[in-house]
Known about the structure:
This protein has 64 residues and is of the alpha+beta class. It has helices spanning 5-14, 49-62; strands at 18-19, 26-30, 36-40. A three-stranded antiparallel sheet has the order 1-2-3.
Amino acid sequence: xxxxIRQLIKDLEKAGFINRGGKGSHRNLIHPKGVAIxxxxxxxxxxxxxxxxxxxxxxxxxxx
Length: 64
């Protein structure tokens, strides 16, 4: 079962990312180390497989 968009954002914020807002259904998050990611979709939508992979990759990069 795929995660929801709100869960991906929560995971990123827990890893230290800051939500810079966005336009429409897009949210821009950035980590103090310079790692950035854009998540698209409404909070209650199911996340796409590629979005889940990208979130995990960005969290891993932010820990280096």
